Amino acid sequence: MSTVRCESVSLFTLTPGGQKLASQLRGHLPMKCYCAEKYLAHSTFSQGFEAFAGSFKNSVAQAFMRDSAIIVIGACGIVVRTIAPLLADKLSDPAVLVIDEKGHNVISLLSGHLGGANELTRYVSNILEANAVITTSTDVNQTCSLDLLSRQMCAELVDFRRATKTVNQLLVSGEPVGIYVDPDLIELLGFDIHNFDIRGLRVVAADEPIANDLSALIDVSMNGERPDWPVPSFQLIPKRIVAGVGCRKALAPNVLLSLFEQHLARHHLHPLAVASLGSIDIKQDEPALLELAKRCQVPLTLYSAEQLAQSAERFPSSEFVKKTVGVGSVSQPVAWLLSGGQLLGETLKTQGVTISLGVLN
Asked: One Pfam family from the UniProt entry (predicted)?
Protein backbone atom coordinates (compact mmCIF):
# COMPACT_ATOMS: atom_id res chain seq x y z
CA MET A 1 0.00 0.00 0.00
CA SER A 2 1.39 3.40 -0.97
CA THR A 3 1.92 5.84 1.86
CA VAL A 4 3.47 8.71 -0.09
CA ARG A 5 2.47 12.00 1.53
CA CYS A 6 2.42 15.00 -0.78
CA GLU A 7 0.05 17.35 0.99
CA SER A 8 2.67 20.09 1.28
CA VAL A 9 6.28 19.74 0.15
CA SER A 10 9.11 22.28 0.21
CA LEU A 11 12.34 21.69 -1.69
CA PHE A 12 15.53 23.59 -0.92
CA THR A 13 18.60 23.87 -3.12
CA LEU A 14 21.95 25.31 -2.14
CA THR A 15 23.63 25.48 -5.57
CA PRO A 16 22.69 25.92 -9.24
CA GLY A 17 23.43 22.21 -9.67
CA GLY A 18 20.73 21.49 -7.12
CA GLN A 19 18.28 23.64 -9.07
CA LYS A 20 18.96 21.60 -12.18
CA LEU A 21 18.21 18.39 -10.30
CA ALA A 22 15.07 19.91 -8.79
CA SER A 23 13.74 20.56 -12.28
CA GLN A 24 13.45 16.78 -12.76
CA LEU A 25 11.17 16.51 -9.74
CA ARG A 26 8.88 19.49 -10.21
CA GLY A 27 6.52 17.75 -12.59
CA HIS A 28 6.06 14.80 -10.21
CA LEU A 29 5.50 16.48 -6.84
CA PRO A 30 3.30 19.42 -5.80
CA MET A 31 6.05 21.43 -4.14
CA LYS A 32 7.47 24.89 -3.64
CA CYS A 33 11.14 25.36 -4.46
CA TYR A 34 13.55 27.70 -2.68
CA CYS A 35 17.09 28.87 -3.27
CA ALA A 36 19.44 31.68 -2.27
CA GLU A 37 18.40 35.02 -3.75
CA LYS A 38 21.71 35.32 -5.63
CA TYR A 39 20.76 32.28 -7.73
CA LEU A 40 17.34 33.55 -8.81
CA ALA A 41 18.70 35.64 -11.67
CA HIS A 42 21.87 33.75 -12.51
CA SER A 43 20.71 30.16 -12.90
CA THR A 44 19.18 28.64 -16.02
CA PHE A 45 16.91 26.51 -13.83
CA SER A 46 15.75 29.20 -11.37
CA GLN A 47 12.33 29.80 -12.93
CA GLY A 48 9.60 29.14 -10.38
CA PHE A 49 11.96 29.31 -7.41
CA GLU A 50 11.48 31.62 -4.44
CA ALA A 51 14.28 33.18 -2.43
CA PHE A 52 15.03 31.97 1.09
CA ALA A 53 13.13 33.90 3.75
CA GLY A 54 16.23 35.68 5.05
CA SER A 55 18.35 32.53 5.20
CA PHE A 56 18.33 28.81 4.47
CA LYS A 57 18.07 28.08 8.20
CA ASN A 58 15.07 30.37 8.66
CA SER A 59 13.28 29.03 5.59
CA VAL A 60 13.73 25.41 6.68
CA ALA A 61 12.41 26.28 10.16
CA GLN A 62 9.25 27.76 8.63
CA ALA A 63 8.74 24.72 6.39
CA PHE A 64 9.34 22.35 9.31
CA MET A 65 6.34 23.78 11.13
CA ARG A 66 4.18 24.03 7.99
CA ASP A 67 4.80 21.17 5.57
CA SER A 68 4.33 17.43 5.49
CA ALA A 69 7.70 16.92 3.79
CA ILE A 70 10.98 18.73 3.24
CA ILE A 71 13.51 17.85 0.55
CA VAL A 72 17.00 19.33 0.55
CA ILE A 73 19.46 18.93 -2.29
CA GLY A 74 22.75 19.25 -0.48
CA ALA A 75 24.92 17.68 2.19
CA CYS A 76 23.47 15.62 5.06
CA GLY A 77 25.62 17.41 7.62
CA ILE A 78 24.17 20.81 6.78
CA VAL A 79 20.62 19.47 6.99
CA VAL A 80 21.24 17.68 10.31
CA ARG A 81 22.66 20.80 11.92
CA THR A 82 19.79 22.90 10.55
CA ILE A 83 16.90 20.71 11.72
CA ALA A 84 18.44 19.57 15.04
CA PRO A 85 16.91 22.42 17.10
CA LEU A 86 13.53 21.84 15.44
CA LEU A 87 13.03 18.18 16.30
CA ALA A 88 9.99 17.65 18.48
CA ASP A 89 8.35 14.22 18.23
CA LYS A 90 8.16 11.29 15.83
CA LEU A 91 4.40 11.70 15.85
CA SER A 92 4.55 15.24 14.48
CA ASP A 93 7.89 15.89 12.76
CA PRO A 94 7.64 16.11 8.95
CA ALA A 95 9.40 13.80 6.54
CA VAL A 96 12.90 15.03 5.66
CA LEU A 97 14.80 13.80 2.60
CA VAL A 98 18.31 14.69 1.48
CA ILE A 99 19.52 14.29 -2.11
CA ASP A 100 23.12 14.70 -3.19
CA GLU A 101 23.68 17.28 -5.93
CA LYS A 102 24.43 14.64 -8.59
CA GLY A 103 21.23 12.75 -7.81
CA HIS A 104 23.00 9.51 -6.97
CA ASN A 105 21.40 8.98 -3.55
CA VAL A 106 18.05 9.89 -2.00
CA ILE A 107 18.28 9.62 1.79
CA SER A 108 15.36 9.18 4.18
CA LEU A 109 16.66 11.29 7.05
CA LEU A 110 13.68 11.84 9.37
CA SER A 111 10.17 10.43 10.02
CA GLY A 112 10.63 7.37 7.85
CA HIS A 113 7.41 5.64 8.88
CA LEU A 114 4.83 8.01 10.35
CA GLY A 115 6.00 10.99 8.31
CA GLY A 116 6.16 8.91 5.14
CA ALA A 117 9.82 9.70 4.39
CA ASN A 118 10.68 6.12 3.44
CA GLU A 119 7.93 5.82 0.86
CA LEU A 120 8.63 9.31 -0.47
CA THR A 121 12.32 8.36 -0.74
CA ARG A 122 11.41 5.35 -2.87
CA TYR A 123 9.16 7.49 -5.04
CA VAL A 124 11.76 10.21 -5.60
CA SER A 125 14.58 7.73 -6.19
CA ASN A 126 12.51 6.07 -8.93
CA ILE A 127 12.02 9.41 -10.65
CA LEU A 128 15.73 10.24 -10.50
CA GLU A 129 16.84 6.63 -11.07
CA ALA A 130 18.83 7.03 -7.87
CA ASN A 131 19.74 4.84 -4.92
CA ALA A 132 17.16 4.94 -2.11
CA VAL A 133 18.96 5.07 1.24
CA ILE A 134 16.63 3.80 3.98
CA THR A 135 18.02 2.75 7.35
CA THR A 136 14.99 1.96 9.54
CA SER A 137 15.41 -1.51 11.03
CA THR A 138 12.10 -2.97 9.87
CA ASP A 139 12.78 -1.91 6.29
CA VAL A 140 16.33 -3.24 6.36
CA ASN A 141 15.06 -6.55 7.72
CA GLN A 142 12.17 -6.59 5.23
CA THR A 143 9.43 -6.80 7.83
CA CYS A 144 6.41 -4.62 8.40
CA SER A 145 6.31 -2.08 11.22
CA LEU A 146 3.44 -1.59 13.63
CA ASP A 147 3.50 2.20 13.32
CA LEU A 148 3.22 2.06 9.54
CA LEU A 149 0.60 -0.70 9.72
CA SER A 150 -1.54 1.45 12.00
CA ARG A 151 -1.30 4.32 9.53
CA GLN A 152 -2.13 2.14 6.54
CA MET A 153 -5.14 0.79 8.41
CA CYS A 154 -6.24 4.21 9.74
CA ALA A 155 -6.14 2.63 13.17
CA GLU A 156 -5.17 3.63 16.71
CA LEU A 157 -3.12 1.96 19.42
CA VAL A 158 -3.94 2.45 23.09
CA ASP A 159 -0.27 2.92 24.03
CA PHE A 160 1.31 3.86 20.72
CA ARG A 161 4.91 4.37 21.82
CA ARG A 162 5.21 1.23 23.92
CA ALA A 163 3.33 -0.93 21.41
CA THR A 164 5.33 0.13 18.35
CA LYS A 165 8.67 -0.04 20.15
CA THR A 166 7.96 -3.51 21.56
CA VAL A 167 6.51 -5.06 18.40
CA ASN A 168 9.03 -3.55 16.00
CA GLN A 169 11.94 -4.72 18.15
CA LEU A 170 10.50 -8.23 18.22
CA LEU A 171 10.05 -8.24 14.45
CA VAL A 172 13.60 -7.11 13.63
CA SER A 173 14.91 -9.66 16.15
CA GLY A 174 13.12 -12.47 14.33
CA GLU A 175 10.73 -13.19 17.19
CA PRO A 176 7.31 -14.70 16.33
CA VAL A 177 4.58 -12.05 16.37
CA GLY A 178 0.99 -12.94 15.53
CA ILE A 179 -1.87 -10.85 14.18
CA TYR A 180 -5.50 -11.69 14.89
CA VAL A 181 -8.54 -10.04 13.28
CA ASP A 182 -11.80 -9.92 15.23
CA PRO A 183 -14.44 -11.93 13.27
CA ASP A 184 -16.87 -9.02 13.76
CA LEU A 185 -14.60 -6.84 11.60
CA ILE A 186 -14.61 -9.41 8.85
CA GLU A 187 -18.38 -9.85 9.01
CA LEU A 188 -19.20 -6.15 9.35
CA LEU A 189 -16.65 -4.64 6.96
CA GLY A 190 -15.34 -7.51 4.89
CA PHE A 191 -12.01 -6.63 6.50
CA ASP A 192 -9.06 -8.37 4.80
CA ILE A 193 -5.76 -8.17 6.68
CA HIS A 194 -3.91 -9.19 3.52
CA ASN A 195 -4.65 -5.77 2.01
CA PHE A 196 -1.98 -4.38 4.34
CA ASP A 197 1.75 -4.86 4.80
CA ILE A 198 2.00 -7.73 7.30
CA ARG A 199 5.44 -9.06 6.36
CA GLY A 200 6.94 -10.97 9.27
CA LEU A 201 3.61 -11.45 11.05
CA ARG A 202 1.87 -14.78 11.60
CA VAL A 203 -1.85 -14.52 10.80
CA VAL A 204 -3.91 -16.29 13.47
CA ALA A 205 -7.28 -17.59 12.26
CA ALA A 206 -10.40 -16.94 14.32
CA ASP A 207 -10.87 -20.65 15.06
CA GLU A 208 -7.20 -21.20 15.88
CA PRO A 209 -5.97 -21.13 19.50
CA ILE A 210 -3.35 -18.51 20.27
CA ALA A 211 -0.04 -20.31 20.38
CA ASN A 212 2.05 -19.91 23.49
CA ASP A 213 5.19 -19.70 21.38
CA LEU A 214 4.23 -16.22 20.13
CA SER A 215 6.25 -13.39 21.65
CA ALA A 216 3.38 -10.94 21.11
CA LEU A 217 0.01 -10.62 19.43
CA ILE A 218 -1.49 -7.72 17.47
CA ASP A 219 -5.22 -7.81 18.13
CA VAL A 220 -7.15 -5.99 15.38
CA SER A 221 -10.56 -5.09 16.75
CA MET A 222 -12.98 -2.22 17.39
CA ASN A 223 -14.37 -4.00 20.44
CA GLY A 224 -14.05 -2.25 23.77
CA GLU A 225 -13.46 -5.53 25.62
CA ARG A 226 -10.92 -8.07 24.45
CA PRO A 227 -10.00 -11.61 25.53
CA ASP A 228 -7.31 -12.26 28.09
CA TRP A 229 -4.73 -13.48 25.59
CA PRO A 230 -2.04 -15.94 26.81
CA VAL A 231 0.71 -13.74 25.30
CA PRO A 232 1.43 -9.99 25.47
CA SER A 233 -1.10 -8.29 23.18
CA PHE A 234 -1.56 -4.87 21.62
CA GLN A 235 -4.97 -3.86 20.33
CA LEU A 236 -4.98 -2.14 16.94
CA ILE A 237 -8.29 -0.31 16.59
CA PRO A 238 -9.49 0.61 13.07
CA LYS A 239 -11.26 3.97 13.04
CA ARG A 240 -14.42 3.04 11.19
CA ILE A 241 -17.25 4.34 13.40
CA VAL A 242 -19.12 7.58 12.66
CA ALA A 243 -21.79 9.19 14.79
CA GLY A 244 -24.64 11.56 14.04
CA VAL A 245 -25.49 13.63 17.10
CA GLY A 246 -28.46 15.81 17.90
CA CYS A 247 -28.84 17.63 21.20
CA ARG A 248 -30.89 20.30 22.92
CA LYS A 249 -29.52 23.78 23.31
CA ALA A 250 -27.07 24.49 26.16
CA LEU A 251 -26.69 20.82 27.03
CA ALA A 252 -23.94 20.27 29.61
CA PRO A 253 -20.86 18.83 27.83
CA ASN A 254 -20.31 16.16 30.49
CA VAL A 255 -23.86 14.87 29.93
CA LEU A 256 -23.31 14.40 26.21
CA LEU A 257 -19.90 12.81 26.76
CA SER A 258 -21.32 10.35 29.30
CA LEU A 259 -24.24 9.38 27.06
CA PHE A 260 -21.93 8.98 24.07
CA GLU A 261 -19.57 6.70 25.99
CA GLN A 262 -22.53 4.65 27.25
CA HIS A 263 -23.87 4.27 23.71
CA LEU A 264 -20.51 3.05 22.43
CA ALA A 265 -20.24 0.61 25.33
CA ARG A 266 -23.75 -0.69 24.60
CA HIS A 267 -22.51 -1.58 21.13
CA HIS A 268 -19.23 -2.98 22.53
CA LEU A 269 -17.19 -0.35 20.69
CA HIS A 270 -13.88 1.13 21.77
CA PRO A 271 -13.92 4.97 21.87
CA LEU A 272 -10.81 5.05 19.66
CA ALA A 273 -12.83 3.39 16.86
CA VAL A 274 -14.69 6.68 16.29
CA ALA A 275 -13.55 8.38 13.08
CA SER A 276 -15.87 11.38 12.89
CA LEU A 277 -18.90 13.09 14.37
CA GLY A 278 -21.61 15.06 12.63
CA SER A 279 -24.62 17.25 13.32
CA ILE A 280 -26.73 20.03 11.80
CA ASP A 281 -25.03 23.36 11.05
CA ILE A 282 -27.32 25.29 13.40
CA LYS A 283 -25.37 23.53 16.18
CA GLN A 284 -21.96 24.73 14.98
CA ASP A 285 -21.32 26.68 18.20
CA GLU A 286 -22.91 24.21 20.61
CA PRO A 287 -20.36 23.73 23.46
CA ALA A 288 -21.34 20.12 24.16
CA LEU A 289 -20.78 19.07 20.54
CA LEU A 290 -17.51 20.95 20.23
CA GLU A 291 -16.23 19.44 23.46
CA LEU A 292 -17.24 15.94 22.38
CA ALA A 293 -15.32 16.29 19.10
CA LYS A 294 -12.34 17.63 21.01
CA ARG A 295 -12.38 14.78 23.51
CA CYS A 296 -12.70 12.19 20.72
CA GLN A 297 -10.03 14.04 18.69
CA VAL A 298 -12.09 13.70 15.51
CA PRO A 299 -13.56 16.18 13.02
CA LEU A 300 -17.10 17.52 13.42
CA THR A 301 -18.94 17.59 10.08
CA LEU A 302 -21.94 19.90 9.86
CA TYR A 303 -24.84 19.62 7.41
CA SER A 304 -27.54 22.11 6.50
CA ALA A 305 -31.21 21.27 6.89
CA GLU A 306 -31.42 21.11 3.09
CA GLN A 307 -28.61 18.56 2.93
CA LEU A 308 -30.32 16.41 5.55
CA ALA A 309 -33.84 16.67 4.15
CA GLN A 310 -33.59 13.94 1.51
CA SER A 311 -32.10 11.25 3.75
CA ALA A 312 -34.31 12.37 6.66
CA GLU A 313 -37.30 10.99 4.78
CA ARG A 314 -36.03 7.51 5.62
CA PHE A 315 -36.40 8.03 9.37
CA PRO A 316 -39.08 8.92 11.94
CA SER A 317 -39.73 12.66 12.06
CA SER A 318 -40.37 14.96 15.03
CA GLU A 319 -42.49 18.07 14.47
CA PHE A 320 -40.77 19.78 17.37
CA VAL A 321 -37.34 19.13 15.90
CA LYS A 322 -38.55 20.25 12.47
CA LYS A 323 -39.83 23.56 13.85
CA THR A 324 -36.60 24.06 15.80
CA VAL A 325 -33.92 23.21 13.21
CA GLY A 326 -35.79 22.91 9.90
CA VAL A 327 -35.69 19.13 9.49
CA GLY A 328 -37.58 16.42 11.38
CA SER A 329 -34.58 14.22 12.23
CA VAL A 330 -30.89 14.98 12.76
CA SER A 331 -28.79 12.13 14.15
CA GLN A 332 -29.98 9.38 11.80
CA PRO A 333 -29.68 11.29 8.49
CA VAL A 334 -26.29 12.64 9.61
CA ALA A 335 -25.03 9.14 10.41
CA TRP A 336 -26.49 7.97 7.10
CA LEU A 337 -24.55 10.60 5.15
CA LEU A 338 -21.31 10.12 7.10
CA SER A 339 -21.37 6.34 6.62
CA GLY A 340 -22.72 6.16 3.10
CA GLY A 341 -25.91 4.48 4.32
CA GLN A 342 -24.33 1.93 6.67
CA LEU A 343 -26.06 2.50 10.02
CA LEU A 344 -25.17 0.42 13.06
CA GLY A 345 -27.49 -0.56 15.92
CA GLU A 346 -30.29 1.42 17.52
CA THR A 347 -30.43 5.19 17.98
CA LEU A 348 -30.03 6.56 21.48
CA LYS A 349 -32.83 8.96 22.46
CA THR A 350 -32.72 10.39 25.98
CA GLN A 351 -32.33 13.66 27.91
CA GLY A 352 -32.69 15.75 24.77
CA VAL A 353 -29.93 13.81 23.01
CA THR A 354 -30.02 11.55 19.97
CA ILE A 355 -27.01 9.54 18.84
CA SER A 356 -26.93 7.32 15.76
CA LEU A 357 -23.92 5.26 14.74
CA GLY A 358 -22.69 4.24 11.32
CA VAL A 359 -19.75 2.26 10.00
CA LEU A 360 -17.29 3.06 7.20
CA ASN A 361 -16.39 0.26 4.80
From this structure: CbiG_C
